């Protein structure tokens, strides 16, 4: 009997070792990590350079409280990140995870508004489906009813607009009119709420767990930027999943001309070596807050040297190994091969993604886009089949959490052609079994 209680799906094998793209359980069974944990382990497991950097830091000091000491590791990582951000985003606040990073971004936005005479602005518009974390503030901006409903009214519900899902609405995502159609929903929402009450728009550049690697339609992001600027609304990019090279560029939002005011990152930054997140803000937002007493915020472990030393080594690996370019290249290959599987398996209704944030979605009928019945629990069954074959993939129910199953295939960015063959063979064999079992 385990004393842990988060294993909703029953007991799992016990992890023994992880190296590169592989993991082994205590019975010696090998798994290919086709989901990088939960899109975390971007540079693969047990990278020797990161371990060396961590060992060095551990021998010097594992903790220095940020109000007592500056540390070299946090200074260097902050500088590194600022250099990788769009111009002007050069103020970094470290945290220990994605939800903390989102909370930090929301609080900085609010404190900026208060200190600059815009205290009426507090509403954060976000999207449904959307996922931004499990703390109460992050949940308030999460558009995913099964996660939010049990906790009402403990958080203040924020306004939502639909996430663009052109494939479900029968629209062409490559037609710029589609991007404008969805982006203009933001402007309508701002006007309906009252522009003076709207603080920020929070968006995942490419949908992660929420919409399953769904890429925004052409023109969407640029128009969103324009609308935010027009109404004095801050644009916050949730790069928790898309950041650190996952989509083929360092930031997911680097794919578009839509400069964020605030970026929040986590998963791939600590890359499974240490819990680490960051909020990176435009200097223009931070300056007035610092001028008027400072940011009323901070977690105990923020900026601890061990996490920052790991993060710095991770970002160095991303650069040295050219992992953004590899993610772009292997991602294109994976998409093409998933499209091949879609030809073969009727149950796959859609394939999508950017870089190595890729997914396919099961449908009962491709024409009507009807999902598989929720009672089939198809996504979990597929994950279990693949797992038994030694391939780990990540799955979620989309379509507002009630039905619609998608499978995210997001291996570490270090994957080679041979790994990719193994992933596709594992998916093929799992799909064959799944198609057989589901009917
Ligand atoms: N934002 C996004 C886009 C995420 O994908 C996640 C985690 N899946 C979070 C925020 C929350 O991150 P964490 O679980 O590290 O708190």
UniProtKB/TrEMBL annotation:
GO molecular function, one term: pyridoxal phosphate binding
Short name of one Pfam family: Aminotran_3
Presence of the UniProt keyword Transferase in the record: yes
Keywords attached to this entry: Aminotransferase, Plasmid, Pyridoxal phosphate, Transferase
InterPro entries listed in its UniProt record: Aminotrans_3, Aminotrans_3_PPA_site, PyrdxlP-dep_Trfase, PyrdxlP-dep_Trfase_major, PyrdxlP-dep_Trfase_small
Superkingdom assignment: Bacteria
PROSITE patterns tied to this protein: AA_TRANSFER_CLASS_3
Coiled coil: none
Co-factor(s): pyridoxal 5'-phosphate
UniProt record similarity statement: Belongs to the class-III pyridoxal-phosphate-dependent aminotransferase family.
Name under which the protein is recorded: Aspartate aminotransferase family protein
Native source organism of the sequence: Parasedimentitalea marina
């Amino acid at each position: 009997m385990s004393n842990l209680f988060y294993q909703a799906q029953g007991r799992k094998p016990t992890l023994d070792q992880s190296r590169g793209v592989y993991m082994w359980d205590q019975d010696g069974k090998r798994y290919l990590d086709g989901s990088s944990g939960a899109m975390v382990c971007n540079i693969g497991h047990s990278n020797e350079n990161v371990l060396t950097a961590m060992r060095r830091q551990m021998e010097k000091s594992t903790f220095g409280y940020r109000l007592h000491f500056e540390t070299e590791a946090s200074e260097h990582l902050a500088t590194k990140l600022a250099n990788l951000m769009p111009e002007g985003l050069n103020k970094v606040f470290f945290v220990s995870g994605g939800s903390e990073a989102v909370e930090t971004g929301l609080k900085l936005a609010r404190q900026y508004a208060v200190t600059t005479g815009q205290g009426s602005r507090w509403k954060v518009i976000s999207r449904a489906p959307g996922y931004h974390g499990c703390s109460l503030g992050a949940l308030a901006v999460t558009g995913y009813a099964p996660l939010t409903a049990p906790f009402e009214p403990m958080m203040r519900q924020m306004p939502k607009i639909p996430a663009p899902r052109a494939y479900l609405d029968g629209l062409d995502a490559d037609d710029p009119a589609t991007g404008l159609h969805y982006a203009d929903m933001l402007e309508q929402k701002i006007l309906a709420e009252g522009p003076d009450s709207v603080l920020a728009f929070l968006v995942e550049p490419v949908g992660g767990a929420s919409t399953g690697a769904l890429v925004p339609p052409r023109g969407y992001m640029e128009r969103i930027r324009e609308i935010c600027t027009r109404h004095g609304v801050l644009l916050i990019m949730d790069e928790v999943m898309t950041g650190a090279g996952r989509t083929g560029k360092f930031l997911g939002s680097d794919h578009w001309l839509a400069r964020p005011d605030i970026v929040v990152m986590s998963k791939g930054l600590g890359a499974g070596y240490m819990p680490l997140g960051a909020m990176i803000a435009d200097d223009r937002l931070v300056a007035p807050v610092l001028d008027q007493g400072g940011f009323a915020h901070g977690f105990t472990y923020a900026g601890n040297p061990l996490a920052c030393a790991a993060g710095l080594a991770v970002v160095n690996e991303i650069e040295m190994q050219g992992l953004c370019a590899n993610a772009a290249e292997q991602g294109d290959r994976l998409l093409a091969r998933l499209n091949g599987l879609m030809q073969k398996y009727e149950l796959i209704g859609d394939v999508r993604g950017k870089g190595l944030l890729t997914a396919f979605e099961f449908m009962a009928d491709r024409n009507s886009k009807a999902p598989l019945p929720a009672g089939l629990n198809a996504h979990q069954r597929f994950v279990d089949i693949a797992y038994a074959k030694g391939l780990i993939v990540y799955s979620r129910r989309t379509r507002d959490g009630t039905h619609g199953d998608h499978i995210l295939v997001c291996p570490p960015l270090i994957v080679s052609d041979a790994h990719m063959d193994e992933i596709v063979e594992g998916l093929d064999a799992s799909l064959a079994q799944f198609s057989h079992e589901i009917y």
